[in-house]
Amino acid sequence: MATHGHVVRFVARPGKRDELLAILKPMFDEVEKEPGTLLYLMHLSDNEPDVVWFYERYQDKAAFEIHRTSATHDAVLASLKPVLAAPPEIHWLTLIADKGLPSPASGGAPG
Length: 111
What we know:
alpha+beta, single chain
């Protein structure tokens, strides 16, 4: 299944990680409304206390565009500036193998 995905690294200013997490949380309500969003995972770094990682996987580029252009996405990004130590780092990924992503034949159940 050809999908579209990336990881994003957010670095909070010292002492602002919990505020960063609170700002990012509304995105999870938004992605529930996006059928093309296959995976949307937020992680805390075990090595870097001020770092939050996202792993995102979309059905295709069009699904990512729906996500990227939502009003919630814009509001969250605008709210991040005061708590970030640096701009978010986006790393685009090409999927070559998976376990657990929905497959077209399964009607959306993990493959």
